Structures are given as C-alpha cells and as structure tokens.
Batch of 2 targets.
Target 1
Amino acid sequence: MDPAQLDPSVLAPIGFAAIGAMLTLLFEVFLTRGSRAGSPDGADASGEASQPRQTGLTLAVFSSVFLLFAIYTAASMFASGTNAVFNPARPMLRLDAYSSLATIVIAVAALLSLWLSITYLMVLRISHGEYYALLLLATTGMFVMVASVDLMAVFMGFELMSVPIYALAGFDRSKLRSNESGLKYFLIGAFASAILLYGIALLYGATGHTDFAGIREAFAFDDPIGTLGVALILVGFTFKVAAVPFHQWAPDVYEGAPTSVTAFMSVTVKAAAFIVLLRFLTMALPEMGERLGDVLWVVAALTMIVGNVMAVIQTNVKRMLAYSSIAHAGYLLIAFVAGTGEAHSAVLFYLVVYVFMNLGAFGVVLALTRAGAECERIDDFAGLARTRPGLAGTMSLFMLALAGIPGTAGFMAKFYLFSAAVQADLVVLTIIAVLTSVVSLYYYLRLPVAMYMQEPGEGRKAEASSSELLVLGICTVMVLYLGFFPNPEPFATAIRALDVAGSSVAYVP
C-alpha cells in the first residue's frame, strides 16, 4: 500500500469526534486534579458541590467545539461535492454527498443532545466528564457507520456506537431502573451484534467479499447461505431501529435511561441504522429490494400498528415516545419497500425532521426536571400552560409535528414519504400508514389536553436553562421552517450520489 494514495480528508469528521472524546477524558483529569490541589481541606459543602457543575459545564463546551468542527467539515465537503475513498486499494470508508449529509445530521443531533444534557446532569448530580466522552465515542461510531462501504467497517462502527450507549443508559448509577436499563440494552444489543456478525460471516462465505462492490458482483440470489446472511444482517439492524418484532427493548430502555440519554439514542441510533441500511441495500444488493419487498411490507405494517396501538395505553411520556419511535420506524420502512429514488430521498428528509421533532419533545421533558424529580408522567404536565406557557406551546407544536399535522415539518415528511409509496403502487400499505397516523393523534394530543385543560399541580416553577432554551428554539424554528419551506433538493443530491456510487463501483481483485 502506497501511503501517498491515502486520502486523510475522509477521516476528518471521524477524527474530530474521536480526538474530542480522548481529550475530554484527559481534560477532566487535569480539571479535577487542579481543583483538588488548589482547594483547602476545609472547603465548604457548597464549594464542593459547585466544582462538579463547573467541570461539567467546561467539558460540555469543550466537547461541543469538536462536534462543531465535525459539522463544519462535513458541510464543507457536502457543498464542494467531495467524493473520495480513504484507501482506494481497500475501500472501506467513502466520503460522498450521502455520507457527508448523514454526518451532518448525526453531528447536529449529538450536539443538541449534548446541550440538553448540561443542566439535566447537574440537577441529578451526575455531571461527570466521562458522559461527554462516551457521547462523542458513540457519535464517532456513527460517523464510521455512515461512511462505510465494507461490512467489517460497518460492524466496527456498530460496536463503537453501541458500547458507549450501553454505559450511558446505566449512567445514573444511584437509580436501580437506570442500571436495569443499561443491562437490558447491553444484553439485547449483544444479541443484535452477534446476529449481525453471523450474517456478515455467512455473506462472506457465500460471496468471498465483505466490501459492498465485491458483494454486488458475487452475490447469487439462489444461494441459500448468502440469502440467510442478508436476512441476519437485516435482523441486526431491525434491532437497532426497534422494528417489530425486535422492539421489546425500546420502551424499558427509554424509560429507565437518563432522559438526556434517551433523547440522544432515540434520534441518532435510528438515523445511523437507517442510513447504513439504505447504503448497504443500494450499493451491495440493488436487486434485493424486490425479493425482500413482501417481508419488509409485513414488518413495516406490523411496526406501525404495534407502535401506535401500544402508545395509546401509555401513561409515561418516555414510554409513549418510545412506542412513537417504533411507529416512526414503521413509516420509514415504507421507503425500503418502495425502493425508488424518491422514497430514499424522503427517508433522509424524514430523519432530519424527526431529529428536531423528537429532540424538541424530550427537551421539554428535560426542562421540567428540577430538584431531582423528573417529569415523566402525562399527569405531570397538567396545567403547564398556566405555569409555563412557553414550554406548553413548544411541546404542543412538537406533538402536532409528530402526529403529522399540516403546517409542521412532520406533515411534509409524511407527505413526501406517502407520496413516494403511492407512486410505487403501495396503496394498501399507505392506507395503513394513514390510518395509524390518525390513531397517533389520540396519544399525541393527550399532552396538549393535559397542559391546557387541566388544573396545574404543585411545583414546576423553575425556568428552563439557557442551553435548554437554545435547543428548544432551534427545534421550534426548524419544525416550522421545514413545514412551510421544505427543500428536498439536498436529500435528492445525496441519493443521486449514492446511486452513482452504487452503479460505478466495481470490484477489483
């Protein structure tokens, strides 16, 4: 291998996140050691309590800088139309319009999640530097995943994403349900990883390749081993996106994990998994969509039905949003059944919109968490319009957007997706999607009804922090802007780059 042929620019966004994670850990050591060395033995309790808050805030700002660098780098590469492979002799990571846009989406979601975490961690007294390092490491794994054009690189990114999130899910070690959440996610995630790796092994045995180009050239549709390998790979990804029947982990993990972690994993993990799955099916198995159509049709229908029906009976907001997340996974799977460029473009637009809708909803829940008491039950939102009218208004907007009400970005996302499905003659599946969306109105509107039509309870007088207000403001603006001025062209550009990459690559032995 000639080092001169390597293109290090492909690793730039990944490098910023990875280096940021390592430096955050080191920076925390110096901050805590310096504070201990400079503090007298008789420091008062208030001084000792304020030190972790200052350290946590400093590390949050420090981590944000690296995510901003990653966003800027990826945006510059997307604007310039960069199309490069890190090592042409062994292509594993590819940076094109598709992966650049995916990197931007994930980095923005991670950055907003990080800002939402600052005050929340301080309130719960778990503001430790390793939280931000773990978040950056998980984001690094996602960057690797979306840039991968080789199944081994996908698996490495998959694990680099998953392991830090296992730790984050159980980050609040003083609470039993957080520990339970981390353990459940670890056990189920380990099964998903094993199934994915077994599928990769079978597909390698059938084709002799792990790179997408080689699989495309060598895959035989009548080979049962290769077909089983593809099936297991799909099962591994459906675990991550919480599609039926592999969805059981989501409600318990979402409810038990710290709310800031739930917000982070609810948008970033889903986005990364769908983006990688779309690249894999498009570049490695372009003709497999028709053969998988019936299976994906059933999975999409069941996911929409189960997610929406189960959300109706929930009284915990985090569990409700977990089942809502399952339902949205079902909507996104419609595009994989359709298999058209318009449907694939709609997936990317939907994921961007989902980031702002879901993070905004979780942001309101986080803003109401004060004095160690989390606001999780629907009854906790009673009368919020009288005590916190701003938060009540933004929460109502996000609920309407998630339901797909016109005037919001959620409506446009569903409109593009359902339109592509109808054009692909998926009329019955589209009808199921519309009917389940109608069902979702019931549980999404339960929160506005509680906030505006019920008497307020005790407490909830504290104001949201500046970082929470910033995130809620960004999410509100984006939900309204994308609702009134949607621009699908950047997403169509990314899909065209993906199609060009899939049709132009050829395996060179």
Note: The mean pLDDT is 85.
Target 2
Amino acid sequence: MTGAPALDWSVLAPVGFVAVGAMAILVAEVLLERMKTLAGRPVTEAFRGTLLALGAMAFLLLAFYVSCAAFSDGASRVFHAGHPMFRMDTFSALGSALLSLAALLTCALSIAFLSELRIHHGEFYALILLSTAGMMVLVSALDLIVLFVGFELSTLPLYVLAGFDRRQPRSNEAAMKYFVLGAFASAILLYGAALLYGAAGSTAYGAIRISLGDAGALGVAGLALVLVGFTFKAAVVPFHQWVPDVYEGAPSVVTAFLSVASKSAAFLGLMRLLALAVGAQTDWLVDVFGWMAVATMIVGNLMALIQDNVKRMLAYSSIAHAGYLFVGISVGDEAAFTAVFFYLIVYTFMNLGAFGVVISLARGGHDFERIDGFAGLARRRPGLAAAMALFMFALVGIPGTAGFMAKFNIVLAAVHGGRIGLAVVLALASAVSIFYYLRIPMLMYMRSPEFEGVRANSGFFEIVVIAACAAAVLFFGFLPNEGAIPFFGLQVPLHALDWANQAARLLFRS
C-alpha cells in the first residue's frame, strides 16, 4: 500500500495568499456592513471600501513578498512530483511578483477613484484578487488543463469588472462585448487544447513537445487554436476588436488593470507555452507571428492617431505595444524572451502611471476622458502634468526613459535573430506614435484650459502610485541593471534585465 503523495504547498503560496484574500474580503464586507461604527467613527461606504482596499493590498503584498523570495531562492518546485502540472520557478515567481505588484497598484489607485464615482464596493477588490490568482496560475502552468483553469479564472472576474459601474450604459455594453467575444476565445482555446490532446495523447507541455513534430495536421490545428486564445487576451491583430470599446466603457481603474496585468499574463503564459510545449518554432509559426506583429503595430498606431478620447487612444496604444512585444515573440530565442519580459516590467509602470494621472483627474462621478481636457493642465496641476509628460515620453521611447531601454532591447533581439525587417517596422511605428503621444504634453503646456475642470486634489494613494511609477520609469531608463533596495529582510536587486534573463533562461533550459 503506497503512502499519500508528497505535496509541496509552498509552491501555491503566491496564488494561495491572493485567493484566500479574495474570500477574506468578501466575508469582511458582510461583517462591516452590519457595523454602524468602528474605532469611534461611522462605517460609511467610503470608509468601508478603504478598509477593504487596504486588506486586499496587504494580501497582495504578501503574495509579492513570497514571489520575490521564491525568485531569489532560484529553486524549481512542483506541487505534485508525480503529476507536475503547476511549477514555481524563476519564471513563474517573477511573473507572479509582477502581476501582484500590478494588482497592488491598481487597488491603491481605486480608493479615491471609486469613491469619486460612488461605486466603492468591496467586491471590486475581491474580483481583482481572483483575477490575479488566475493570472498567476496561467504563468505557472505545465499542463493544458491548468492553463485553461488559469485562463478562465483570470478572465471571468474581468467581465464583471468591465461592467462594474452599472449606472453607465456603456459600462454594461463594454462588459457584454467583452463577455461574448471572450467566450468565443475561451471556446476556441479549449477546442485547440482538445485537438492537441488528441494529437499528443497528453495535456502535459513536455509530452506535447515530444510528439508535436509527428502530430501532423491535427497538432498544427490544435496549436493554432490555442494561440488564438492567447492573441485575443493579448489584443493582437486580428483579435483586437474588443479592446477600444471595452477600454472606453470600463471604469478607468479596470482599464488600467486590463492594460497591464491581463496583457502581462497573456504574454507570460504564451512564452511558457511556446518554450515548453512547442520548442523550436516551425517556419510557418515564425512567419505568422511576424506578420501579426507588423499588422498589430500598424493598426494600433494608425488608429491611435485619430482618437479624441484618451482611453481609446491608450487602448490603441496598448494594441501597438502588443505588436512591439510580438516582435520578440516571433524571434523566439532566449534574448528575445528576455527583452519581452523586461518590456512587460517597464510597460507596467509606464501605462499604470499614465492611467494613474487619468484616474486622478476624475471628477463629479465621471471619468476623465477627452484628450482636449488636458489643455492647460500644467497651470492647474503642474505635478500631474509633469508626470503625464514623462509617461508619454516613456511610451514613445525617448532616451533616458525606461521605454527607450525596453524598445531598444526588442530591436536588438530582432536584429540578432535575423528579423531586421521587423526591427525597421518597429522603429517606424514608434516614430508614428510621436504624433499622438506628444499631443498630450503639447496641450498641457501650450494651450489654455477650454473644457471642464478637474479635481483640485488627488488622493494620497494616487500620488504615491504616480510618483512610484515615475521613479521606476526614470530609474530603469538610466540604470536598467543597477541598484538594490531592502524589502522585509530581503535585499532585492533592481537588476531588471538580469531578472528577465534569469526567467527566460529557465524556460530554455527546462
């Protein structure tokens, strides 16, 4: 009689903290709703929401800490040695740390914003936590079954979050569009996984990699359909149509979370799948990825040029950046995956910072949306104007910002990988982006106010997040591989390129 299998529960620590946190937030909200006062002050909706936000941030901080500890340890551990379906290694640890940090910053940005829109409910934070848990599962999967579970767990809460402002018809419309199209993408991914199982006889990444070369048309079709699910989540052309409407209709904090966390999870999960289940990419896959990267860069940048809504502009900008990232995916070697991971780290700070400024300008129960509303902002809110200008420069890729270093590494990887044409298209597309990104600093510093006013003061956490993102953009722009900070007893080196390289190296040596 065999004993019970040895289970390494520490592997699930990041996901566990986030998932337990979601349950705790829901229970805490029920208890707080029954309380009239707490610590001598009335329990209003805003006060209750702030307490729940702080609780969610505490759980995310714990997840971030254990992810950093697992990355520093460098070990590779699976939950069940007999059936390795979920693994914590340097790649998944760094990915989990990035996702928990993105969720943490999103929760911090939400406190004043949700109060301003009068929708400060605790379930918002529970949904953020549940989605983050699914994303962590997605980037740690070693099996198509776990991959699908993570994919669905990360996406289902996002449908609800997109329609969180139920009073706004367009928020409901955004949720419905996202749900319908997302359901199709999930069904396609599941069908592809079934075909891969039929071709390989297993859902494990390792078994698929061994048998994929001999799987014939069935394996190719299955892989193609699974990739459709990922490209939908990553907002890659031609599966990008949902992005502008959903980004515009969803509350700005949800849009910010979608633009960084969901995109990061999609690309990290895709890299893990390609490296562990596909291995050496076939010529047709390289060509398909290359053409998709070109189409995504062109469509994203050209459509961003004609937008007058800042959220739609940032939506098409997000599509363009997905194209830049897909250049690295199409190259497919260790250097390219290092560049993609570093880009995702940098993009998190650039885009969350930009959305942080938009969020801090919300007023009177309405999002701040029109690009013309930035006119004269430097006179009314000089600090916010300076931060927004920095984030726009970084998204363009101006030297001295982290955005330049991120694009430079992608271009370098493409050139070294023999994909010079893609590098040229990336450079030209970035040149086009100058026109719509620098339009905002021009309006802030060279035009007088013409539209509605903005909030006189930003919330404390909004200021902290914007300042932290601005510092990161500058730091990783000038010193992408230098420095260290203490974090709860850990000496965390700020060697972002080294972090990304360690993670990518793990994939290619597994």
Note: Residues 281-510 form one domain.
